[in-house]
Amino acid sequence: MLRKLLFWGFAVVFPLPLILTYNVQGTAPGPLKYYIFLGLAAYSWWLLSILLSVRPPWLDRPVGLPAVYGLHGMLGILAIVAAYMHRDLSYSPSQLAGDLGNFAFYGALSVLCYSVFFMSGWLVDRSKLLQKTKRLLEIVFRRQLSVWIHRLNLVIVAMIWLHAHLLVRVNQYFAFMMLFDFYTVLTLSIYVWKKWIAPDAYLTGTVTANEARGSSTRRISTALDRTATRLQPGDFFFLSFQGSSSVSREWHPFSVTDDNQETLSFTIRQHGDFTRRLGHLEAGTRVRLEGPFGRFESIVRSQDREAPLVFIGLGAGVAPLLSLTAAHHTTRDIHLLWAVRSEEDAYYRDVLKEYESAPGSRLRVTTRVGRFHREDLTNSLPAEVISNSHFFIVGPNPAVLANQRLLRRMRVSPRRIHQERLTM
Ligand SMILES: Cc1cc2nc3c(=O)[nH]c(=O)nc-3n(C[C@H](O)[C@H](O)[C@H](O)COP(=O)(O)OP(=O)(O)OC[C@H]3O[C@@H](n4cnc5c(N)ncnc54)[C@H](O)[C@@H]3O)c2cc1C
What we know:
The structure is a single chain. It is built from 18 helices and eleven strands. With 424 residues, it is α/β, with parallel strands linked by helices. It folds into three domains: 2-199, Up-down Bundle (Four Helix Bundle (Hemerythrin (Met), subunit A)); 202-294, Elongation Factor Tu (Ef-tu), domain 3 (Beta Barrel); 299-421, Nucleotide-binding domain of ferredoxin-NADP reductase (FNR) module (Rossmann fold, 3-Layer(aba) Sandwich). Helix 2 runs antiparallel to helix 3 (30-53). The protein binds flavin-adenine dinucleotide (FAD). Flavin-adenine dinucleotide is lined by residues 138, 143, 236, 251-255, 266-269, 272-275, 316, 319, 420, 422-424.
C-alpha cells in the first residue's frame, strides 16, 4: 500500500521541476501563470504516461504491472482535465500555436475515449451490452489497429512541444526551455530504446512443442537459450514469435504454466485473431520474451506460512496458478478451484491428480464445468479456510470481477483477494 502511495506520489511530483522553473523565470501576470502551470502539468503527465507504457521491469515487482497500467490510464484522464482548463482559461497570441494546442487537445480526448473503450476494461468489463458491442467493433478495430491509434499520442506530444516553442511567453526563458526539452527528449529516447533496441537483449528461445489441449487451447513449450533466473511461480511474459510463416510478431502476454526456468510452457486459449493462428505455429520457431512480470509469488511469500491459499482458475486462467501449485503443494495448504467450459477442457486433470497424490501433498482440487456459485464455494471450502485464506483469482476480466463480488458477499476482505485479469 505504501509503495503504491509513493508510486502515485511520484506522479504528483513529476511536473514540479517544470512548474517551479517557470514560476521563477516567467513574468506572465498572476492568473495566467497558473493556467500555464496547468498546461505544464498536462504535458508532464502525458510524458509520464508514455514512460509507464514501456513497462519498466523494476516497477513490476514492487507495485505490479496492472498498477502501472492503471496509473498510465489515470494520467491520461488527469492530463485531459488539466489541458481543458488550460485551454479554456488562457489565450494564445499566436494563431498557429493556438491551433496546434486545440488539435492536440481534441486529438488526445479522442484517443483517450477510444482507448478507454477498446483497450481498458474500465467500462466494458462491467456491462454485457458493451462487451458485445466491443466484440462486434473489434472485427474492424483489431488490437493492432488500436495499438497504432493509441500511438497517435506521440504525435499529440509533438504538437504540444511545438505549441510551447511558438509561444513567446514561454520560449524566451532559456533554462525553462532546456528543462522542457530535456523532459521531452528523455521520454522519447526511453520509448524508442525500449520499443526498438531493448528487445535484442530480451530472453530468447525456440518452440519445442505445440500441442492441442481440449477443444480450443494450445500448450506451447519453449526451450530458452539461457535460464530465466528471475522467473518466479505465477509469472507471465510478453511473447513475440519471430519469423513464423503463420503467426505475426505482435507481443502478447501469457503466463508460465510450470515451475521450470529452462523450458517455459504456456497454456493459451484460442479465441481471437492472434491466438487462433497459434494452431499453425511450427516447432523450431524462434521466440522473444519480455519479462518475467508478476507479483503472485511475493504475495504468497509475504503471508503467514500457515494460512491456506485458495486458487480460483477460470479456464486458461489456471496457468499461473498451476505453476504456483507446482511450487507450493507440499509446503502450503492449497485449495485449487478450476472452472472449465466442458469436460474436455479440464485438460490438466491428470497433472493436478499427480500433484494431489504426491508424497506430502497438501493440495485439494475441485474442477467444475461452468461457473462457481456461492454454494459451490461453501461446499468445497471449510468455513475456517474462507475466513483465513488468501484468494488468487485469474481469468477473463468479467469472470474475475464476478468471482471477486462473490467473495466480497461472503465477507472476504479485499486485502485477502488477489487477482490477475487476462487483459490490461
Ligand atoms: C497478465 C496476463 C496474462 C495472461 N496469460 C494468459 C495465459 O496464460 N493464457 C491465455 O490463454 N491468455 C492469457 N492472457 C490473455 C492473452 O494475452 C489474450 O487472450 C491474447 O493476447 C488475445 O489475443 P487475440 O489476438 O487472440 O485476441 P483478441 O480478440 O485480439 O483479443 C481478445 C482480448 O484480449 C485482449 N488483448 C489482445 N492482445 C492483447 C495484448 N497484447 N495485451 C493485453 N491484452 C490483449 C484484447 O483487448 C481483447 O479484450 C493473459 C493476459 C494478461 C494481461
